[in-house]
Design brief:
7 helices; globular; alpha/beta; single chain; five-stranded mixed beta sheet; 5 strands
C-alpha cells in the first residue's frame, strides 16, 4: 500500500505523518477491525483519523495533526469501504458529499434511522454502507462507479450549509 505524503508539513507534523503511515502499513488489519467495531458500516476519513494516537490524544492534537494523518486516514477509509462493499454485495450505499465542515459525518451519526429514511425512500440503506466523502475529491466518482460495479445501489446525500439534498 502506498500513501502519498502531504506537502507543506513542518518537521514535527512529518514525524506524526510517518508514524501514521507506519501504523497503517504494519497493522492495517487491526485498524480495520477496530474501526468497524467502533463505527460499523459508516465509513469516513474523519472517523478513521480517530484511530491514529497522535491525532486522537486531545482536542489540541486533533487541531494540530489533522493534516499529518489525513492521507493515512483516507487510505484506511478506502480499505474499509472496499472490505465492507465486498461483504455486502447488492446492498445499498449512501454517499455523503459536501465541503469540509459541512456536517456530513454529523448528519449520519446524529440522525435516526427514520430521519435518514426520508432521504432514501427507495433503498434498504440500513443494511448497507454509509460513506462520507469530500465532494471535491477526484475519487468520489470512482467510488460511486465502484459501488455500482459491485452490484450495490448507490444514493448520494449532499450536505451544505442551509440543508441536505438527496440525489
Amino acid at each position: 500500500m502506498s500513501v502519498v505524503r502531504m506537502e507543506g508539513l513542518n518537521a514535527e507534523e512529518q514525524q506524526v505523518e510517518e508514524r501514521a503511515i507506519k501504523l497503517l502499513k504494519d497493522d492495517s488489519t487491526a485498524l480495520i477491525a477496530t474501526y468497524r467495531e467502533k463505527f460499523g458500516s459508516i465509513v469516513g476519513t474523519d472517523l478513521a483519523r480517530e484511530l491514529f494516537p497522535d491525532y486522537s490524544e486531545s482536542l489540541e492534537s486533533r487541531l494540530k495533526y489533522a493534516l499529518a494523518v489525513q492521507k493515512s486516514a483516507s487510505a484506511l477509509s478506502e480499505l474499509i469501504f472496499n472490505e465492507i462493499l465486498g461483504e455486502k454485495h447488492g446492498s445499498a450505499v449512501l454517499f455523503t458529499a459536501g465541503g469540509t465542515g459541512a456536517g456530513k459525518t454529523s448528519a449520519i451519526m446524529r440522525n435516526t434511522e427514520h430521519e435518514l429514511e426520508s432521504y432514501l425512500t427507495d433503498i434498504d440503506y440500513l443494511e448497507g454502507v454509509k460513506y462520507d466523502s469530500d465532494a471535491l475529491r477526484k475519487s468520489l466518482h470512482e467510488e460511486l462507479d465502484y459501488a455500482f460495479a459491485q452490484g450495490n445501489i448507490s444514493k448520494a446525500l449532499y450536505a451544505a450549509s442551509g440543508g441536505t439534498q438527496s440525489t
